[in-house]
Structure formats: structure tokens, C-alpha cells
Amino acid sequence: MTVQTVRVTPSAEGARVIQLADGDGWFTVCDRSLLTPGRGVAALLPDGRQVALFVDRSGRTYAIDNRDPFTGAYVLSRGLVGSSDGRPFVASPLLKQRFDLATGSCLDDDEVSVAVFGVRAD
Amino acid sequence: MPVPTTPNAPAAGVPTIVVVGHGMVGQRFLEALADRGLTAAAGTARVVVLCEEPRPAYDRVQLTSYFSGRTPDDLSLVEPDFMARHGIELHLGDPAETVDRETRRVVSRSGLSFTYDTLVLATGSYPFVPPVPGKDAEGCFVYRTIEDLLAIEEYAKTATTGAVVGGGLLGLEAAGALKGLGLDTHVVEFAPRLMPVQVDAGGGAALLRTIENMGLTVHTGVGTQEVTADERGAVNGMNLSDGSSLATDLVVFSAGVRPRDQLARDCGLAVGQRGGIIVDEECRTSDGDVFAIGECALASDGRVYGLVAPGYEMAQTVAGVIAGETASFTGADLSTKLKLLGVDVASFGDAHGAAEGCLDVVYSDSRSGVYKKLVIGQDGTLLGGVLVGDADQYGTLRPMTGTVLPVAPEQLVLPAGAGGPVTLGPSSLPDDAVICSCHNVTKGAICEHTTLPEVKKCTKAGTGCGSCVKVIGQLLPQSADKGLCGCFPYTRSELYEIVRTLGATSYAALLDSHGRPAARGGDGCEICKPTVGSIIASLAPTLGASGYVLDGEQAALQDTNDHFLANLQRNGSYSIVPRIPGGEITPEKLIVIGEVARDFGLYTKITGGQRIDMFGARVDQLPLIWTRLVDAGFESGHAYGKSLRTVKSCVGQTWCRYGVQDSVKMAIDLELRYRGLRSPHKLKSAVSGCARECAEARGKDFGIIATANGWNLYVGGNGGAEPRHADLLAQDLSDAELVRLIDRFLMFYIRTAERLERTSTWLDRIEGGLDHVRDVVVHDSLGICAELERLMSDHVAGYRDEWSETINDPERLRRFVTFVNAPDAPDPSVKFVPERDQVKPDLDILAGPVLAIRTLEGTAS
Ligand code: SRM
Ligand SMILES: Cc1cc2nc3c(=O)[nH]c(=O)nc-3n(C[C@H](O)[C@H](O)[C@H](O)COP(=O)(O)OP(=O)(O)OC[C@H]3O[C@@H](n4cnc5c(N)ncnc54)[C@H](O)[C@@H]3O)c2cc1C
Ligand code: SF4
Ligand code: FES
Predict the structure, then answer these.
(1) Where is the Rieske domain (chain A) (predicted)?
(2) Which of B107, B98, B138 is nearest to B267 (CA)?
(3) What is the Cα–Cα distance from A95 to A109, expressed in whole angstroms?
């Protein structure tokens, strides 16, 4: 048996793509259809930074740093998305702290936050 | 800190620390130095250790385990490369012979000479041998070092009877060892009871009864007057102070220990009247450049501590003082809890009732060997106590010492049925009792808050290993809202009923129709999503939903482990556990596992559940690894799911001389039947081939033990943080009866349990307990058994292996990339370093703040 590696072509023609703010411009990450509502994916920026991208139920996209500040592991993209009082968050898959997707602040520890990235889908 | 020029060779001019004695405390001191960077490798100090014994420090506390199969190497306390890594000079078998404090010179037996800036004496104790005639005859031993044990073991080969002089802690341990060597064993104790230091007369009597039941002969209240020998000079008996004599081939003296302070005496350091090198609170001797730690020291509170924990504290203190920290050792708690020859013995606080006007509350049952005593002060405060035979309450009582008990003390010592015992819940703990040991948070600090999230946020309690969360829950005000989470006002079992009756297969629809008003239309949360996902999966074949947990909306509900069908590890890598039903595996399959692990560089370990775990796979490697495993006939072991884990087995009737049924076959059958079954929490099982219970079935959610007539089924067992033995549900079942009963039991549990509630807590919680469950699943009191059985047969018929489905479907494989925009780039943060011939996660790379910048091109392999 062989395994097929799935190749994702960024920015397929005509389809909506996800773009991340990068310096003054926008960096195209991938086709919009690759994101499942309620889940995230990780993306690699040209300078080597890792970004966690999410789309919520209503189709809004969010991007925060992929590094879980509590453990140092690059895993936030693998957490579950939820909302509380209308605010979207992701729960770290390791020790379950919640991070506000819009502001990057940790909802369980006032002193901790992660970076937020500009993101757009068009 | 200066940068070392050559590692292991200290730069000129750094101070020299000489340590005399490499025992338990000596080694801890070296570790404390290394922690503080005070080593040659760090270029800050030269450290020289003189060790009298022929081997580096080992675990003396566990000495006796040598007789149960632990080798001297197993007992070692020193990692193989510890000395080399830190550049510490260790001289084995070469004791210090003289110390000249004028010239600051230590000379060893072999003639090595070292000039010290700081000298640390950690020479421990020597066993005291009473000066009785014949004490040096052949066949007389002491019990302190590995060499002593080797000699006893050798001599015991030609002996049939052994006697231990001394019935204290160590004497009883030695007696147990002699018994284990097959000798007819006697214990001779001068005091009127056993373990005179730790327990009082009543406790000694309970202990005596239990120890005699084990076949040891105990003589209390008599002294040893003489050891007699035959013409060859070998021991043949002992004469006792009551005029009697005892024939014995071997004698072990265990009459207490004395501090080894001779070296200190010889060089003029102050020693106590009854021995011990006098030290101050910083553990400094009468010479400011010389420290003494461990059993050789007479601490500033006037005590010589014969326990290892206070010695460790002294080691930390001295390392701290040398490093310029403020540190002191002013005394330690002598509370102990031990298991002696299998008997629990604990004493704490003022165990002997020395305080004026105090009174004892005692419960004693010499038949069962249980003795409990609490010492209560005049004002009702708990001052201390002794527990023999059943020391379960030690954990709650010790922290309450010094406080007034919340209930009458007799209620705490009486057995159930006689007015007690009141199990003291956490509410009775004093405010300063530590509840979360990971973050050192006290009860008082927790009780300042009202909700668990708040406690976690403000105190960090419960955010480490999580084992204290249950107790925290009991301390917080109980809310009337039993809802699963902020999104649903229903419990898990209510949600199960809703899903089942509505035939709901969509989480979003369920949230919008049954969620709390504010949560409707939202995204839910990480608690209810996997819970509802699991309910839908348990009922999938019945609901007509896809049984594959990663299909459609279900994929978005799963925790990361289920999402990637593997277990997330601390560095973001995953572990892989193929199913090995019943623990039975062919050599070919073992070889495949070995080859896969080798080819992918995975760390490999036998798990506690009779399986093999391979750690350190990157997300993108999972499909490649599973392709090889599936090709070889493996399937998912569901180590990641709240579902059936293993059904452990013992070898059973096929091979074992005691077995009465084929436990391996039954374990395999059960594991294959229930594999993939999603449930409120994980499910574990085991099958033993006879009552010897080698598979530990009574520690499992459902455990099966063979009888001559069939099988006994036990339910509600648990290991983990709060172990519970499973209760007998039904006896002497045929194969078919057994399976049918388990089907019903599991489906009833899945239907009625709460989120993350193991069968053990479920059984203890549901109204009517075991009797109710038996009524429902054995006697069908609710008339639902047919339905429960149907649900299970739907599950069995609908089972498909998640991994073979995944690797055969390109769509499903899409998720197994680290980066959505660079599918071929491996995760640069998942890296490994060597450890014991395998690998472990490289955590330095995660230490942050961020990974070294790399270009996108650079990371693509
Ligand atoms: C791998 C293994 C340790 C090992 O190297 O031996 C292990 C590893 C984990 N155990 Fe375990 N447990 C393992 C055997 C056990 C056992 C022994 C047994 O199964 O006989 C127990 C006690 C028995 C029991 O469960 O009653 C055990 C009691 C726990 C508990 C406490 C459960 C409880 O009810 O108190 C947890 C925490 C939990 O589930 O909430 C836990 C949780 C975990 C987790 C899932 C913690 C986590 O979330 O990372 C670990 C991850 C597994 C992984 O990454 O693969 N593990 N764990 C063992 C896997 C066995 C297997 O083949 O599937
Ligand atoms: C069988 C047994 C069971 C025990 N069980 C427990 C228990 O359950 N709990 C508990 O707390 N404690 C227990 N203890 C006590 C515990 O082992 C000691 O408290 C601990 O070992 C003390 O550590 P130490 O380093 O001070 O002394 P040791 O471990 O004795 O080390 C001192 C070392 O110094 C060496 N030495 C002496 N003089 C010189 C010299 N001049 N030059 C070089 N080296 C020298 C000795 O050879 C020895 O290796 C037990 C002890 C025994 C023997
Ligand atoms: S449980 Fe019984 S049959 Fe199984 S290995 Fe042990 S003694 Fe043998
Ligand atoms: S004891 Fe509280 S988190 Fe471990």
C-alpha cells in the first residue's frame, strides 16, 4: 500500500483564499475550503513564524500565534474552538487554557497572551 | 558565572569542596551542588568525593528489595554519567582516614591527599553491636550495606535457622529478609514490645500478632547474653537473659545505629555526649569550614536524625549556604508511614502521648491486627497518633495535628458498623493543609474562590497533574446547576437520552435547540463538543450516523487526540499504540513494531496496559507509520479515545499450572467485541485464569476471574488516582452469559454516566449502587435489557478500524500535515535529543520565546 501525500496548492484559481497580514502586504496561505469550521490549521510564514488559523461557525476567520505559551509547544492550531458570551476562543489541546481568538489574551491567566495576526478571506 | 576553559578540569583558583562519604545524603548533596552550578564542569568548584564502599551511592532505604530481585545496579542512586557530566572526582573504596584542619588536608586510605576550602562530612551511621561474648563468631552479621546482604545471602545457603537481635524497624526488615531466604526466623527484642520507638504498647501488640501469623517467632522482653559457637567457631545458638537458649545458625544484629563521628572526633571537632557531630542551623560544625550532614550530624535541635528525608534537607541547606543563599535546617518531622512485612505502620506527632494531661483514644482489634490511637490534648487538639494494620487515615490526620478535631475522636478510630469511621472529607482539613501538591496550594487559598475556573486562574491549583481537582470540587460551594458546561443546562446522561430519543446527529442543531439561550447559535466549547461527539459515536449505528469519528461535523468536535487518532505529547509530537488484543502477539508482529519504531526513530516503551507505545511521531508521519502497521495486520488501539483500552490477560489454563479457564482467549474475544466503543470515560478490562488474579482484573472497569465452573464478573474497579477494587456482579457464568452481562453493563453505564466519570465513581454515585445495577442488568428490573443488548450488537456489527479507513481515503489524509501551506515541511519545533539509547523530546527548543527564524524554503525537506 502506498500513501498519497496531499498537496495543497495555495491560491487555486477562482476560489476564496485565506491571507495573513505580513509586513505591509498580504501573504496568501491556502484555499478557504481547507478550513473546517470549529477547527484550526497551522501555517508557516516566510520568516519561519507559525500561525494558527481558525474559522468559526459563522465563517469568521482568526489568526493567532501557534505557540502555546504554557508548554512552549507549537500546537494551538490543534485546539477546539468555542465561544463564551459571544466571544470566540480556542482551548489549548495540551493543558486546556482558553485564548480569546480576537485579542489573543488568555482567559485563564491575565498575565499571559499570544500574538494576533491580521487575516482576511477573499 | 565564568565560562569553563576545559570542561571537567576546574580553572585554577576555584575552591575545592571535599565530601567524605558517598551515601544517600552525600549523593543528594552532590546533586544540590550540581543544581546550583557548583561543579568543575561549570568551572566554579572542584568537587572531590571519598567513598568507603566499593560502589557509588545506592538506595539504602530500599536495601531489602535486593532480596525480592532488585540488583545492586537497580538500587543505584547515581545516573551513569552523573560524575563525568559534572566533572566530580569520585574515589570508590577509598575512605578518608585523617583530617588536618590546620593545613585543611584530608588523606585517604590509599594515600591520596586533598586540600579543601570546604569539607563536608556525610559519613552516616554504623550498626551498633551490643558487646556480648561471641558477637564476632562466624555467622554473625549486621544489616546496613549491600555487602552485608551479599554475605548474609551466601551464609544462609547452609543455614536453616536465623535470629535477629533487635525488634525495631530495621530488625523486622532483616527478619523478613531471613524468612524470605527460607530460614526459620526468630526476633529477639529487649524492650517489652516490637518497634518501641515508633509505636506504643498497644500498637506493638497488634504488630506482634500479625508478625507471628506470618510464621516468625518473636521473643520480647529478653536480652541476648551470649552468642555460642561450635568448635569451628561458627554460630550455633544464643543464650537469653531469661535463662532460655535458642539454637540458631545465623545471627543478624540490628540493635540500633550510632553516628559515625570518629573522623570528626580525631580532628577535634565538637561531638555530642551521646555521639553525633554538633552542627548549627546552617549545618556548620565547630569549624566554620567543615559541615556535617545526614545521620552523622547532631542537628541544632539536639537530635540525630535516622531518617533519610531530614538528611536530604541538610544536604540542600549546605549546598545553599555554600552558594551564598540563606538556608537553614532547624529540625524535621518524625512522622512516618511505612509498610513493614506487608503491615501498614504509621506514627505522627506526639505518638507516645508525652504532653501533660493528654489522653489517648484507642481502638484495638488484635484478631485482625488493627490498632489505632489518637493522642488528644486537654483542649481537644489532636497531638499525634499511631496507626497499625490500617493506616489509610494517615493522609488526613497528619495535617490535622495541632488542630481541634471536627468530630469526636472515637468516631475516627472505630471501624464501620461500630459507630465509625467518619471519613473526614476535605472540609475538615485545616486551612494550611496542602491540597494541590503540584503548585503547593493550601485549602485556605482555594476556599477564597467559588468556582473551579477561578481557582485555576488565581491559584494555579488543579492545572498540573489534575489529581486534586476532585477534592477542589468538594471544597467549593455546590451549585444547583448540574449542567455539563456553560453551553448546555443538561448533564451528560440527560444529553444521551435527548440524542437517543431525538435521533440527533448534529451537534450544532443540538446546541441551537437544547443549549442555554446565550449559547445558542454560538460555537460551543471544548467540554460539550467532545462529549456530544462521543455520545453520537456510541449511538452511531443505532442513529444511522457515520461510525467514523472524523466524518463531517463530527471531525470538528473531537479533541486533538481523536482528531489525529494518536496521543498528543508535551512537545507536540504524537504517540502510537497499536491494539494487541489480550496482550498476545506473534513474533512477526513484534518484529514489525520494532522495525517501524526503528525506521521512524520512535521512542519505544512497554505500557502499563500490556501494549507497546511508540512516541515521537510528527503529524505528517502518522499515516506513513500506520500504513506499515495496517499492512502487518495491526489496528488502532484507541489509546487516544474515551473508549475501550486494553483487556489484559494472564497466560491462563493453556500454560499455567493453576489456570482453570482459557483467560487469553476470553480476553481477546472481549477486546475485539468492545474495541472502538466510545464511552463517558476510558474503559479497561482484564481476565485472570484463576483466583491468583495475575491479570489484576479487580482493578478494572470490568474484570473477569475464572472459576472451576466458569467466570466471575467484577465491575467498577479502578487504578489511577483513587484506586477501587471491583465488586462482584455475578458468579460462575458461562461464556455466553458473561458476554451478555457485560454488554448490558457497559451500555447501561454509557447511558447513565456523567462526562469523565469512570465506572468506579459512577457505581458509587448512582442511587442504589451495585444492587441497583445488578437489578437492572441481571434481573432486568427496568425492562431495558433487550434494548441494551441491541445497542451493543449494533456497535459490534458497525465497528470499522479508524486507521485503515483513514489511510485509504485521500480526503481524510489531508489533515495530517503540520502546515496547511507547506505540507511537506516537517514541524521544526518537534526535535529530539538522545536518552538511554533512544530519544526524548528536545524541550530546550520550546523554551522560547520563539523558534529561531528560518525561511520557508529552509524548513521544507
Ligand atoms: C502510556 C501509558 C503509560 C505507560 O507508558 O505505561 C499511559 C499514559 C497516559 N495515561 Fe494512563 N497510561 C497507561 C496506563 C495506565 C494505567 C495502567 C493500566 O491500564 O493497567 C492506569 C491505572 C488503571 C486505571 O485506569 O484504572 C492509568 C491511569 C490513568 C489515569 C487515571 C484514571 C483514573 O480513573 O483515575 C489518567 C487520567 C485520566 O484518564 O483522566 C491517565 C492518563 C493517561 C494519559 C492519557 C495522560 C495524557 O492525557 O497525556 C497518558 C497518555 C497516553 C499516551 O500518550 O499514549 N492514565 N494509566 C499506559 C498506556 C496503557 C495502554 O496500553 O493503553
Ligand atoms: C535496611 C534499612 C532500611 C531503612 N529504611 C528507612 C526508611 O524506610 N525510611 C528512612 O527515612 N530511612 C530508612 N533507613 C535509614 C536511611 O538509609 C539513612 O537515614 C540514610 O541512608 C542516611 O544517609 P547518610 O548519607 O547520612 O548515611 P549513609 O547512607 O549510611 O552513607 C554514609 C556513607 O559514608 C561512608 N563513610 C563513612 N565513613 C567514611 C569515611 N571515613 N570515608 C569515606 N566514606 C565514609 C559509609 O560507608 C556510607 O557509604 C533505612 C536504613 C536501612 C539500613
Ligand atoms: S491468574 Fe492463575 S492462571 Fe493466570 S497466570 Fe496467575 S496463577 Fe496462572
Ligand atoms: S496536585 Fe493539583 S494539579 Fe497536581
Answers:
(1) 27-122
(2) B98
(3) 13
Q: Give me the CATH code for the B425-479 domain, please.
A: 1.10.10.1100
- Name the minimum distance, in Å, from the CA of B753 to any CA of chain A: 23
Task: Encode pLDDT of B267-286 as tens digits.
Answer: 999 999 989 999 999 999 99
Note the CATH number of domain B644-796: 3.30.413.10
Touching check for B589 and chain A: CB below 8 Å?
Answer: no
Please write the tens of the pLDDT for every residue from B802-826: 999 999 888 888 889 899 988 888 8
Using the 8-state DSSP alphabet, how is residue B381 labeled?
B
Q: Tell how far the Cα of B685 is from the centroid of ligand 3, in angstroms.
A: 16
State which ligand 4 atom lies nearest to the alpha carbon of B437: 1
Helical residues (DSSP H) of B633-768, grouped into ranges: 663-674, 735-752, 759-765
Interface test with A, best of B457, B463, B520, B523 (most A CBs within 10 A): B523
Note the CATH architecture for domain A17-121.
Answer: 3-layer Sandwich (2.102)
Q: CB B851 to CB A50 under 8 A?
A: yes
The answer to whether the beta carbons of residues B715 and B759 sit under 8 Å apart is yes
Q: Measured from the CB, is residue B644 less than 6 Å from ligand 1?
A: no
Q: Does ligand 2 have an atom closer than 6 angstroms to the CB of B462?
A: no
**Which residue intervals of B655-709 are DSSP H helices?**
663-674
Q: Residue with C-alpha cell 583558583?
A: B13
CB-nearest partner of A36 from B457, B556, B807: B556
Q: Which fold has domain B335-420?
A: Enolase-like; domain 1 (3.30.390)
CATH class of the domain at B16-124+260-323: alpha beta
Domain range summary for chain B, segments of one domain joined by +: 16-124+260-323, 128-256, 335-420, 425-479, 492-555, 562-640, 644-796
